[in-house]
Write a structure and sequence with these properties.
Elements lengths: L1 E3 L1 H13 L20 H10 L1 E2 L1 H10 L11 E10 L10 E5 L8 E14 L7 E8 L6 H18 L10 E5 L5 H7 L5 E5 L40 H4 L2 H8 L4 H5 L8 H26 L3 E6 L1 H4 L8 H14 L10 E6 L5 H21 L22
Helix pairs in contact: 1-2, 7-9, 9-11
């Protein structure tokens, strides 16, 4: 495990573990009974000693893992910060998010964040078995580094015989803040299950608009949308919501002709179901997007036949279904503080320009909300760049 200065490093480790209180300086460790060398050997071991990291990781993986009653191995991954606020010359320091320092407020302190993977023990205990540690750098992708780290740990667990074919999948627990969806994708080929803690302010909702177990795309007459999405699958928003899909589902005519069918027409019920299914698909897609970006209003640019339909016609069911699906997931209303939905007619040739303008407005509004501290950010006032001698030139 120790490539050089083996005995000195072992005695240094014994001194750290056996010291009764915290370590204030390296020199005082040489006074511990477990350290039988002088302080010169101690500094020599720290400066010139080397540890075989790969061998250390393999040795940790070979240790007996905590035994659970169901035979499942449980791992946990999280980031622990080594704060170095006064080490101005230390390389690759990052601002680490910390609590319970000073007045107990959240602070950003320079330090080194380490990604740790440990094996959890059964029962209500804080004791764990460390299996791996990786320091995160300024240019590292935390999710990619964590996925690669978990992959290597699981591979070593399998190689050492702790997990065999037929055993329960290894449970890997992550704290809030990890991209669980991406981690599950990156670890899909391993015998692991990803479990993560969600933030307390995360907005959750059930499948909108349809009871569990029911076919959301079948109507009372038994007809079904046969058109497929561009990716080749049924049920995506591109399968049901666009005007060309509505025309295909109805079986002929144009969007303007189908939208003008009134209540007295024998085709009214069938056409209304087509518009209702298309609007419901768009509403579900908007609900998923709203769950991520949390907008205050939704502005839609639609063909005139859908954005401004005639009263008592089939096209009125389209926007009604959109609002209904969003209302199932969020409080959508015209009242202040509620999610507002607006639809405006537009030409298909202008959709690209309108989309770019809408994206620019969203970015601008986010900057304004951040400047006014409306996004929950509680960063203090900026420090002045002027000195007592006058403004800097």
């Amino acid at each position: 495990m120790f490539a050089t200065y083996r005995d000195a490093l072992l005695e240094l480790a014994d001194a750290v573990l056996c010291k009764q209180d915290r370590v204030h300086m390296l020199a005082e460790l040489s006074l511990e009974p477990e350290h039988r060398r002088g302080h010169g050997a101690l500094y020599g071991a720290v400066n010139c000693g080397r540890i075989d990291i790969a061998r250390l990781r393999w040795s940790l993986a070979c240790l007996p893992l905590p035994a659970w009653g169901d035979g499942r191995i449980r791992l946990a991954a999280d980031v622990s910060n080594w704060l170095r606020p006064d080490a101005a010359t230390s390389p690759d320091r990052l601002f680490c998010h910390c609590y319970a320092r000073g007045k107990g407020n959240a602070q950003m302190i320079p330090g080194w964040p380490y990604s740790l993977v440990v094996a959890l023990e059964p029962g209500r205990t804080s004791w764990t078995l460390p299996l791996d540690a990786v320091r995160l750098g300024p240019a590292d992708d935390a999710t990619a580094v964590t996925a690669a780290q978990v992959r290597e740990v699981v591979s070593r667990i399998i190689a050492t015989g702790h997990w065999r074919d037929g055993d329960p999948d290894i449970l890997v627990v992550f704290d809030a803040g990890y991209d669980l969806t991406r981690l599950a994708w990156l670890l899909a080929d391993l015998p692991v299950e990803v479990l993560g803690r969600l933030r307390s302010d995360r907005v959750m909702y059930f499948p909108v608009g349809f009871p569990i177990g029911k076919d959301p795309y079948s109507s009372a007459t038994g007809t079904r949308f046969k058109a497929r999405c561009l990716c080749g699958q049924l049920g995506h928003v591109n399968t049901l919501a666009p005007p060309r899909r509505i025309v295909e589902a109805f079986g002929g005519g144009t969007l303007e002709q189908i939208s003008q069918i009134s209540t007295g027409d024998p085709e009214f019920q069938r056409a209304q179901q087509v518009f209702k299914h298309g609007g419901a698909a768009l509403g579900r897609a908007l609900a998923h997007v709203s769950n991520t970006v949390n907008p205050s209003r939704v502005i839609m640019y639609l063909p005139a036949a859908l954005a401004d339909p005639e009263p008592d016609t089939t096209a009125t069911a389209y926007l009604g279904a959109v609002r209904q699906e969003l209302s199932y997931a969020f409080a959508a209303s015209d009242q202040p503080g509620y999610l507002r939905i607006r639809a405006f007619p537009a030409n298909p040739q202008d959709f690209a320009l309108l989309g770019a303008q809408a994206a620019a407005v969203c970015v601008l509004e986010s900057f304004i909300e951040h400047a006014l501290r409306l996004d929950g950010c509680k960063i203090g006032p900026r420090r002045s760049t002027t000195s007592s001698q006058g403004p800097a030139e």
